[in-house]
Amino acid sequence: AERLWIHTSPGERTELSCTVFSDPESKVEWFHEDKPVDLGDGRIMAYREGEKHKLIIKRVTSPDLGFFTCRATNLFGRGQQSVHLSGIANPAAFKRGPKQSSNHNYTLIWEVESYSSIIEYKLLFKRHQGSSELTDWTEMIVPADPSSLGPIHSQSYTLWGLQESTVYEASVLSRNRFGWSRPSHIFRFATKGADLSVKEDDLQELSEQDEAKEQVLRDFIEKKIVNVEEGDASPMYKENSWSSGFSSTHTLSWGLSTCLLATLPYLLHRLS
């Protein structure tokens, strides 16, 4: 099953919820790292509201970080969905604002959600080209603002010496005490005189180019930038970990549109 990824931090309250539709009714169990969740001390509670099965962690601890699985079983089979509870930051999001560009410089602005302090950022940028090759990316470390308390951290950085009337693209990663985040989506910007507008007929092709570039970028980061060790809390290079949605609240759910997460797959047979 596809694995989702959720940002949290020790000390936070977290609620997981999966929606199960089955006939006959299923038995639903929660597992952490393939072991039944311990509900004995009252810190973690499981309960049901109709078709929604919820797991509440009143106060997250470091050992809680890892994979939680909601497993539903009936006479016809078993279905399950897993989510990775991790302390690494959410991917950053670039912002556009007035007076960010001039003939030869551009001020990049981005925000990142992290319950833990950001230590530093890794910024990558290059001239915009159709190719997904990574030979011309420029990398630099940007120190984080130590006064930023979060959970929303804002950062800006001005690139100098850019070419006039030129389109560029950038991506950024954030590092907190749990490791490096995934890279942001590719952000396209330009110095004065360049045209950033895209014809409607070219949108699909541009989107496909960006998807290819982002995949190559992730592979490049895995091999060249971030030293990912086995057992690291970061799921950024685990199988299927790139396609999940994210929640900006402490309530994390499968199947609830307010949390932007995927619905539990219909893996159980329904009687006709």
TrEMBL record:
It comes from Graphocephala atropunctata. The keyword Flavoprotein does not apply. InterPro entries: FN3_dom, FN3_sf, Ig-like_dom, Ig-like_dom_sf, Ig-like_fold, Ig_I-set, Ig_sub, Ig_sub2. Residues 90-194 form the Fibronectin type-III domain. This is Ig-like domain-containing protein. Pfam families: I-set (PF07679). SUPFAM superfamilies: Fibronectin type III (SSF49265), Immunoglobulin (SSF48726). One of its GO terms (biological process) is cell differentiation. Residues 11-86 form the Ig-like domain. The keyword Repeat applies. Keywords: Disulfide bond, Immunoglobulin domain, Repeat. The lineage of its organism: Eukaryota, Metazoa, Ecdysozoa, Arthropoda, Hexapoda.
